[in-house]
């Protein structure tokens, strides 16, 4: 089974003035994972850059392939980074273990 299915798109050069953004999703299962997960690839062609910027999001949430879904995960990642930075700068241990239901417990130990 191929790791991803390519949608037919014309091979065109990126715009010289605007960022072009594409979203693709596919199912993937790493050897260490118990089940297959949905992966969303965000491909951005920026003017003047030789290669596209590519980001991957692994999720089990049913969401549309659009900017809103990517923004949601980017904001979540930024919030987690701020929590970690605060904890490291103030000598607090951070707990990122999974709770029941598979949702991470994001917080500082002793404060949650």
**Topology pattern, helix = H, strand = E:** EEEHEE
Residues in helices, as a percent range: 10-25%
| Neighbour order of strands in the largest sheet | 1-2-3
What number is the mean pLDDT?
75
From the alpha carbons, calculate the radius of gyration and give it in angstroms: 18 Å
Q: Which class do the helix and strand fractions yield?
A: alpha+beta
pLDDT under 50 segments (min length 5)?
none
Please tell me what the overall shape is.
Answer: extended
Count every helix, treating DSSP H or I runs of 4 or more residues as helices: 1
Q: Topology of this structure?
A:
Layout: E1 20-28, E2 37-45, E3 53-59, H1 67-89, E4 94-95, E5 107-108
Antiparallel strand pairs: 1-2, 2-3, 4-5
Condensed summary:
The protein has 112 residues and is an alpha+beta fold. It has 1 helix and 5 strands.
Search tags:
alpha+beta; two-stranded antiparallel ribbon; 112 residues; 2 domains; three-stranded antiparallel sheet; 5 strands
Description:
- This protein is α+β, with helices and mostly antiparallel strands and 112 residues long.
- The protein has two domains: 1-63, no CATH class; 66-112, no CATH class.
- It has one helix and five strands.
- The chain has one helix at 67-89; strands at residues 20-28, 37-45, 53-59, 94-95, 107-108.
- The chain has a three-stranded antiparallel beta sheet, with no helix packed on it.
- Strand 2 (37-45) and strand 3 form a beta hairpin.
- The longest helix is centred in the last third of the chain and has 23 residues, at 67-89.
- The N and C termini lie far apart (44 Å).
- The model has no long low-confidence stretch (mean pLDDT 75).
